């Protein structure tokens, strides 16, 4: 298929067009250009070699380059302009629906269908409807002449790649290589998703009337960090701030339709694997205490083969950073076959398979994660799950305004406290240098910090290839304590809350066996023999797991570096698993 590409910039688009054209291969290939200027819209086409910049172009550029003839088709009336490429498999049927001959050009056909659908609908509704009726491999851009600095774009049969460079230039293209050439950061938007795209941001538009902004966070300090993992760890305050800000502004990510499902829920089934499973486990504490429901957390590689009997009023929450992990998709389908229809997917990938499978979806808006490991998407999942637990408690009449206000205050404080945690990197690196060559580690925590410890140990395995076991602190004495001696360090998450006393007692048992403890704590604990302490920021109750997660991410990262590992692309791991086996792809 030829390429369809759109560029937007807040200012002059011409330098970007001139920069991009040579990347489109041979000079004898054709381009077709659609632009919007202050004076209106216009178009131009020719060979790449003969390209001359049009005057006064402001914000839109769409092109197709293929063989020796331009494949981009344009059609317009007074209100709409459509650019289209590709093959519509049901072209003849669609043409006959509008009384047009079967050889009507694609763009003209789409324009006619759209105008028919617009008779009793908004443009967005008409586009969503149109998308359902099209089968084939095609991509189209639609713009309203009255609002030509933003437009709608959709690709069927192929994904779209959305990117940003230098905070200013936005690209949306069917051509991955082109997006990679131009953009610092790329979002993949799966086939069939309708986007509204423009210089002031982009959003995916959905059949239930909701729209989800796609926040492309241009990495402010790209190049400063030696690895994407570290860059992504440091991106967390900004991502969490953006998510928290929406809730401060009263913009709940929970749509009215999801809220009405939440009112009837008595049980929650969380489905996930890998890191997402640990975020599900943390969330189970919030869902119980804030939502007042019973909660079950399942690993999807197991759950899909189980004959479980979830109660009828169950909300299924499927969590997957990629939205494409095969076991998680299969488990979600399994619950649907069991008759559970209320489901919500939490994912970082707009338009991914999971968003199409679940009845509702919530996007974590953390931007593309280039490292294999979940770091920024993990904490964004946590914050999203927290907001969902609050919405559940509210919908079920359990949480009053005062409790919700407290939660909002925590969310508002969170980004600065994560930032303060990142300032501890030099101390954490020292611990890592000291411990990275050990054979084994325990990571322990209690209550919500138990899954945090699990995630910390998981990260140590993924990044540092270091055997680490995440354990509930209270369980050490039931067996694993036999392994504790001066060679097996214990990393402890020790927030000063009402579980602290019990956790301290567990640590005493470790010290009594000559074990060496490395505790992250918000308390002013005095280090004593075999007890090392890094004081992390306090001031959070519900969201404290995020602080300890970030500290453990840094610890795993520096252990991986100390062991000389390939940080961003570790051996044997894939970013999303589309089958039961690692595919080796990023
Ligand atoms: C892979 C990655 C893990 C990730 C897991 C789940 O195995 O190596 O880091 O946590 O997939 O991915 P998902 O996209 O479903 O959250």
Automatic annotation (TrEMBL):
Residues 258-398, 431-570 form the SIS domain. One of its GO terms (molecular function) is glutamine-fructose-6-phosphate transaminase (isomerizing) activity. Pfam families: SIS. It catalyses: D-fructose 6-phosphate + L-glutamine = D-glucosamine 6-phosphate + L-glutamate. Keywords: Aminotransferase, Glutamine amidotransferase, Repeat, Transferase. The keyword Ribonucleoprotein does not apply. GO terms for biological process: amino sugar biosynthetic process; fructose 6-phosphate metabolic process; protein N-linked glycosylation; UDP-N-acetylglucosamine metabolic process. It is an enzyme of class 2 (transferase). This is Glutamine--fructose-6-phosphate aminotransferase [isomerizing]. It comes from Chitinilyticum piscinae.
